[in-house]
Amino acid sequence: MVIPIPKIEVQDLNVYFEKNHALKNVDINIEEKEITAIIGPSGCGKSTFIRCVNRMNDLVLGCTVKGSVTVDGKDIYGKGVDAVEVRKRIGMVFQRPNPFPKSIFENIAYAPRLHGFVDEEGKHHSYNKQQLKEVVEWSLKRAALWEEVSDRLDKSAYNLSGGQQQRLCIARALAIKPEIILFDEPCSALDPIATAKIEDLLIDLKKDYTVLIVTHNMQQAARVADRTAYFYLGELIEFGETKQIFERPEKDLTEQYITGRMG
Amino acid sequence: MNRNDKQTIIFGLLGACMVIVVLTLIIILGSIIVNGIPMLSWDFLTRSPEIDDTGAQTEGGIWGPLVGTFYLMMLVLGFAIPVGVLGTIFLVEYLGKYSWNRILWIVINNLAGVPSIVYGLLGVALFVGYLEFGLSLIAAGLTLGLMVLPVTMVATREALEAVPQSLRDASIALGATRWQTMRHHTIPYSMSGVLTGIILSMSRAAGETAPILVTGVVASAAIPNSLTDSFQAMPYYIYILVTQTANVDRAYAVAWGAALVLVGLVVGMNLVAIVIRKRYRKKYKW
Ligand SMILES: Nc1ncnc2c1ncn2[C@@H]1O[C@H](COP(=O)(O)OP(=O)(O)OP(=O)(O)O)[C@@H](O)[C@H]1O
Ligand SMILES: [Mg+2]
């Protein structure tokens, strides 16, 4: 029997903001092509955790990350690893939709135009106009937004509704052809209908991508996630199959949170 | 006195203040326009000031001062503004999170309020004396540059900080470097504010008298041929006219004419700024 290696392997991860010990000895393995939900009360380090996976915390002054985060067997905090290269392979979607103040097309074309692509022989190319159009269309279709916007790609992204903007941001992240996508409370600014659309999309994306999602909404975690991790005060308290976490939590802290007696 | 009476009194007071404010504006603009317009002519704009029979410099036009002021603005635009804008971009975008940065900005904000003659003094010491430029266009231009540097920097910083952090995050998360993020996003999105700051700085440079008075402006100077020549300038020419003792009526009339042109210049630049800003706002709005 082949034991699959996890897509992301986090070992002994500690994060400090100056003196504030925000993450404590976190060990967790994220499986490929699954949705892993991160839950826990406000300030417990959920965002800090997923921002370690694409090295976004590097930009925070006074933030120190210790331990290792291994993606596909390679430590992204290893010596000589360029954080910019790490981010090119990992997509991220934020709490509030943050499209660039440009057209829908330009929003999605931005990263492909910047990075180009690498062909089968490992050669680097830039996208030509036609290819760029194809990537934009592919990304929008993959993010279930194409039908709604195909006739107004040159219009400002700010004319879209909040939910559409968030799907645009997902499409923008998909356009860099990542294997991992990080979501930090992607629905917290959206209404229930827009939220349902994003949830359907998440489940669909799971076929091709490894998804990490931070959420405050426990029903959402229960609906979409294969596994769920519960953080409390910077520690990973419990991690397991979503069903088990919600139905038979092993730790008292987890149970208290799940049943709403805390947070 | 009941509540309604109080309200009536307060509203009366506010109304009176409003009337004073509006009247002041009308009087300022009205007197410049009414007194200035009779002077305007092609000759007035294209001839340099000349001496009349009484020895007063009230004949001819304002060409010399106009050219001098234009040169000063170009020097400010060429030296101080690029340094101020680019330096601020670096300070805010790369070093903005350090705590000493806050102290630095308190200092810069205060420098923006330092009286202009103090900059004049600094200019005399630094450019005229120490760097041996003498009383010259370059010394005056650089002095004005020093004076507007804090204004430019504060405006640039405000423009950069108006760009939401979430847009920078979006770009970084897509694998753009910090420089690419600045070049493709932060700088273009903040351009309308930066341009407003630039124009504001240039208008201030056009209008100041004190700093150039001590660094190289001369009433009868020829059109400068080089950076080390002395020069005339609009605000200084107005000052000369207003302090003239011979042929006073004519001197005042010319002064109004010159004031109208100077104000027109500044207002014109502000209009350009508004148009540019509108255009950028339309292009990049969030
Ligand atoms: N940029 C930062 N600078 C300093 N401290 C930070 C920063 N970001 C997070 N922290 C601290 O790290 C801890 C964890 O914060 P984090 O944002 O990861 O929590 P969270 O679980 O995502 O909370 P929320 O649910 O409110 O988003 C908090 O104590 C917070 O104050
Ligand atoms: Mg968070």
Topology of helices and strands:
The complex is a heterodimer of chains A (263) and B (286).
Chain A (H helix, E strand, L loop, with lengths): L7 E10 L2 E11 L4 E5 L6 H8 L9 E9 L2 E2 L7 H6 L1 E4 L10 H12 L1 E2 L5 E2 L3 H14 L3 H4 L12 H13 L5 E5 L7 H14 L4 E5 L3 H7 L2 E6 L2 E7 H6 L4 H7 L5
Parallel strand pairs in A: 3-10, 3-11, 6-9, 9-10
Antiparallel strand pairs in A: 1-2, 1-4, 4-5, 7-8, 11-12
Helix pairs in contact in A: 3-4, 3-6, 4-6, 6-7
Chain B lengths: L2 H34 L5 H5 L2 E2 L8 E2 L2 H31 L5 H13 L4 H15 L6 H25 L3 H9 L4 H30 L2 H4 L20 H9 L5 H36 L3
Antiparallel strand pairs in B: 1-2
Helix pairs in contact in B: 1-11, 3-6, 3-8, 3-10, 4-6, 5-6, 6-8, 7-8, 8-11, 10-11
The site of adenosine-5'-triphosphate has 12 residues of chain A, from strand 2 and helix 1.
Structural account:
- The complex is a heterodimer of chains A (263) and B (286).
- Chain A is an alpha/beta fold and 263 residues long.
- Chain A folds into 2 domains: 1-89 and 182-194 and 211-263, Rossmann fold; 97-177, no CATH class.
- Helices cover 35% and strands 26% of the residues of chain A.
- In chain A, the strands form 3 sheets. Chain A has a 6-stranded mixed β-sheet with strand order 6-9-10-3-11-12, with helices on both faces. In chain A, strands 2-1-4-5 form a 4-stranded antiparallel β-sheet, with helices on one face. In chain A, strands 7-8 form a two-stranded antiparallel sheet.
- In chain A, α3 crosses α4 (129-142).
- Chain B has 2 domains: 3-39; 42-283, MetI-like (MetI-like fold).
- Chain B contains 11 helices and 2 strands.
- Chain B has 286 residues and is mainly α.
- In chain B, β1 and β2 (59-60) form a beta hairpin.
- In chain B, strands 1-2 form a two-stranded antiparallel ribbon.
